[in-house]
Backbone:
């Protein structure tokens, strides 16, 4: 006779794919927030039983850290490609914001916004590690954008009173606004209007 323990699956299921599991966890966190998700929900969504979940990802905090890191790496890779393909500074900024808008507004309403800019802040007040991670991601994003723009368009920054870091800070702030508005229900067309107003505001600084 086979015992109940022997019937229970051990380890990861054969069809388990870590990238797919991380993507499903990302969607769940974006829908429900960090505190709104339970371990059993995560395990079910990712196609794992709870023992397999703990073996694969540790706990919810560790999984969320991996989810956020993977999310930011995807975004940064897209930003890099967009800036590289741009032939002017204003096009590079336009592409960077377009990439962000497509992520913020393309999801279903319950997943609109940004994992880092709208999901993490809601949990940062109660979870010190998430607050530290959020601070790190925000600073890293600004630094990466500034370095990429300065490298791609050195002539502009040699002649302008506006530094690459200051411009990246303005871009970051605009992205924060876009993410919050998307989470609040703004459409892609409405977010594009906000982006265009921002681009217009840069024209007096020679970015046009």
Residues:
């Amino acid at each position: 006779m086979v015992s109940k323990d022997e019937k229970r699956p051990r380890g990861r299921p054969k069809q388990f794919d870590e990238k797919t599991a991380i993507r499903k966890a990302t969607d769940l966190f974006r829908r429900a927030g960090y505190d709104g998700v339970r371990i059993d929900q995560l395990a079910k969504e990712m196609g794992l039983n709870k023992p397999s979940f703990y073996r694969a990802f540790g706990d919810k905090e560790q999984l969320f850290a991996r989810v956020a890191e993977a999310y930011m790496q995807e975004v940064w890779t897209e930003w890099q490609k967009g800036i590289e393909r741009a032939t002017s500074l204003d096009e590079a900024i336009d592409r960077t914001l377009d990439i962000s808008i497509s992520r913020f507004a393309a999801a279903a309403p319950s997943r609109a916004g940004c994992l880092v800019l709208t999901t993490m802040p809601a949990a940062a007040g109660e979870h010190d590690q998430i607050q530290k991670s959020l601070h790190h991601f925000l600073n890293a994003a600004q630094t990466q954008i500034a370095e990429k723009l300065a490298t791609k368009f050195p002539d502009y920054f040699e002649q302008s009173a506006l530094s690459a870091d200051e411009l990246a800070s303005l871009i970051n702030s605009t992205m924060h606004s876009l993410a919050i508005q998307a989470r609040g229900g703004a459409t892609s067309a409405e977010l594009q209007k906000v982006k265009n107003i921002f681009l217009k505001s840069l024209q007096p600084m020679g970015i046009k």
Notes: The longest helix spans residues 60-85. The chain has eleven helices and no strands. The radius of gyration is 20 Å. The chain has a mean pLDDT of 90.
